[in-house]
Design brief:
heterodimer, A: mainly alpha, Four Helix Bundle (Hemerythrin (Met), subunit A), B: Helix Hairpins, 3 helices, elongated
Chain lengths: ~170, ~100
């Protein structure tokens, strides 16, 4: 086992354990904090995959904004954050069954695919992934239209969120 | 070197955990937490396919960024809805929000 594989296994194990804590812990503030741990694990995964820009965006957008939004939402709905009573609905076993079935189905699907155990090509020296990503995101021949559509979607969602959560006098 | 299969197993497991959270939690905020886990699992897959395919094709990373934007939009609207429902009905338990059920 190479050091790279050992690091991968440690990061993957920590991420999956904190993911399990997100869906199983009773206290929702703790669940949101476990979500922060999971998101950091996924950011480390991007760093292992040599996608440095995506890793930084993950930390800034998910950990910095989305997780904080969750903690605010939990605190604003505090009366239902009671630790008594079941946190899972009465059909939770069916949900667990569907999840295990999905996981098993995905694994079975992967194993019938030829490129499954492919290894990564070595990145050529001087390859500028961030520069290439930036030029592709703003180039009319590549992805400028999806990029602009995503920003309009985000603007519309923010306006909608303010409108929905606004209290009328 | 890490084979591609490890990333696919990891993201399938994370997706399964998120699906369980979204299906089985009672609190609406916790359901959104599960959806976030599923979106992250998809993103790991996209970036892994970029790395293990032709790395001069940036489609995987571009899609990951668009998923970030969609996730931010989804979570802001979702939490605004939860807070709005909480103000009117004084509950965020998904089972109790049954006004549309006959």
């Amino acid at each position: 086992m190479t050091p790279e594989q050992i690091i991968f296994l440690i990061v993957a194990g920590a991420t999956l354990v904190s993911g399990l804590m997100v869906v199983s812990t009773r206290n929702l503030v703790h669940a949101a904090l476990w979500l922060v741990a999971t998101l950091f694990g996924v950011a480390a995964m991007y760093a292992i995959l040599n996608a440095g820009f995506i890793a930084v965006v993950q930390v800034v957008v998910y950990v910095g904004a989305i997780a904080i939004l969750f903690i605010f939402a939990v605190m604003l709905t505090r009366r239902d954050m009671r630790d008594s009573g079941p946190q899972h609905n009465k059909n939770w076993w069916a949900g667990a069954f569907v999840s295990v079935l999905t996981f098993g189905g995905l694994v079975a699907l992967f194993q019938s695919w030829a490129g499954f155990s492919k290894t990564a090509a070595v990145i050529p020296s001087g390859f500028d992934a961030v520069g290439l990503l930036g030029s592709q995101l703003t180039s009319p021949e590549a992805y400028v239209l999806p990029f602009e559509v995503a920003s309009v979607l985000l603007l519309a969602a923010m306006v909608g969120a303010v409108y929905v959560a606004f209290t009328r006098k | 070197m890490i084979p591609l299969s490890w990333y696919l197993y990891f993201s399938a497991a994370l997706f399964g955990i998120g699906l369980f959270g979204a299906l089985s939690r009672r609190n609406a905020v916790a359901i959104l937490l599960g959806i976030e886990l599923m979106l992250n699992a998809v993103n790991v897959n996209l970036v892994a396919f970029w790395r293990y395919g032709d790395i001069t094709m940036m489609a995987g990373q571009v899609f990951a960024i668009i998923v970030f934007a969609v996730a931010a939009a989804e979570v802001s609207v979702g939490l605004a809805l939860v807070i709005s429902v909480y103000r009117r009905r004084n509950t965020v338990i998904a089972d109790e929000l049954d006004m549309l059920k006959w």
